């Protein structure tokens, strides 16, 4: 049996990426019911920003919204799923520990730990409560992969520059990163992410030593995803040739063209600082405007280079079965 599938108790070795605003209980449950492991992203099921100026109130609201999403997932599936965390400052950032406490209370089976820094205390807290750890460094290195293995990560994600969303600071392609991370660890299975959207890319990743894949853009074009219809149609009608690449915080982003994305590209071409571009971009809320609301005048459409191989809007079940079934 595939080691990732065994470790995460799933049929197919595939993990759905967090996708920020583009996840909700419906998508996550669909992935679980199709045999993979779904993942509730940072703004899962959320429709508006939490406007309260008190960060404690904001964090509490975020945790309770996530709790409701977790409970809804459990109503829709009996399969395993994950919640995404992004620990900072040793996990003492106001939201990581309350979120983990909620996961403990609600018996969430797995976590996607997103962040280059490995905090042993956070790993131990998760392991002590039998929460499976899917570790994904924003900037993957041999060193942080080994640190994750040392502290008990169940699987490690090798993230290449081909991905969508927040891109790594170093421009290193997925297949180069996969080889490096596979060779860096001794016994922990590795997942490949970045440009994985069809059976050929899955096989290629596994030929390089990955034992699973971690997919984001592929699931945006699913029937169950909450992305606007115009975004899904644009994915099907576009290829990697159409994507813009611009400098912003923390490093780079990609987007399909549109009035706002074109503006961000112009800022980057003009040498505008990453900090200034980041302010203009509006962070992940710009993704919500562009991809959930379909407002390309004020938001962007972040995707990975693998969209070239996405030709139809399909149910999650069909997407996953097709990735792992030989003709």
Automatic annotation (TrEMBL):
<protein>
    <recommendedName>
        <fullName>Probable nitronate monooxygenase</fullName>
    </recommendedName>
</protein>
<keyword id="KW-0285">Flavoprotein</keyword>
<dbReference type="InterPro" id="IPR013785">
    <property type="entry name" value="Aldolase_TIM"/>
</dbReference>
<keyword id="KW-0560">Oxidoreductase</keyword>
<dbReference type="Pfam" id="PF03060">
    <property type="entry name" value="NMO"/>
</dbReference>
<dbReference type="GO" id="GO:0004497">
    <property type="term" value="F:monooxygenase activity"/>
</dbReference>
<keyword id="KW-0503">Monooxygenase</keyword>
<keyword id="KW-0288">FMN</keyword>
<dbReference type="InterPro" id="IPR004136">
    <property type="entry name" value="NMO"/>
</dbReference>
<comment type="function">
    <text>Nitronate monooxygenase that uses molecular oxygen to catalyze the oxidative denitrification of alkyl nitronates. Acts on propionate 3-nitronate (P3N), the presumed physiological substrate. Probably functions in the detoxification of P3N, a metabolic poison produced by plants and fungi as a defense mechanism.</text>
</comment>
């Amino acid at each position: 049996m595939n080691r990732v599938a065994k470790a995460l108790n799933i049929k197919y070795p595939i993990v759905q990426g967090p996708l920020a605003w583009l996840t909700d209980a419906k998508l996550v449950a669909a992935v679980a019911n199709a045999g993979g492991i779904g993942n509730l992203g940072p703004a899962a099921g959320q429709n508006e920003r939490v406007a309260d100026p008190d960060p404690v109130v904001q964090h509490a609201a975020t945790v309770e919204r996530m709790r409701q999403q977790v409970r809804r997932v459990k109503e829709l599936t009996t399969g395993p799923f994950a919640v995404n965390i992004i620990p900072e400052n040793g996990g003492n950032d106001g939201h990581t520990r309350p979120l983990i406490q909620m996961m403990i209370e609600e018996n969430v089976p797995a976590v996607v730990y997103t962040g280059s820094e490995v905090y042993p205390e956070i790993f131990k807290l998760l392991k002590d409560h039998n929460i499976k750890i899917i570790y994904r460094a924003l900037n993957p290195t041999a060193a942080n992969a080994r640190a994750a293995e040392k502290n008990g990560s169940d699987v490690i994600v090798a993230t290449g520059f081909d991905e969508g969303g927040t891109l790594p600071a170093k421009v290193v392609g997925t297949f180069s990163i996969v080889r490096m991370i596979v060779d860096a660890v001794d016994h922990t299975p590795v997942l490949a992410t970045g440009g994985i959207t069809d059976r050929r890319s899955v096989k290629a990743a596994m030929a390089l030593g990955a034992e699973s894949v971690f997919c984001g853009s592929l699931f945006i074009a699913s029937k169950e995803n909450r992305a606007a219809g115009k975004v899904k149609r644009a994915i099907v009608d576009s290829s990697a040739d159409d994507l813009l690449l611009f400098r912003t915080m923390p490093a780079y982003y990609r987007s399909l063209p549109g009035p706002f994305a074109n503006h961000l590209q112009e800022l980057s071409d003009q040498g505008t600082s990453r900090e200034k571009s980041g302010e203009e971009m509006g962070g992940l809320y710009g993704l919500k405007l562009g991809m959930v609301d379909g407002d390309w005048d004020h938001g962007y459409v972040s995707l990975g280079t693998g969209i070239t191989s996405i030709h139809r809007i399909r149910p999650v079940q069909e997407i996953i079965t097709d990735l792992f079934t030989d003709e």
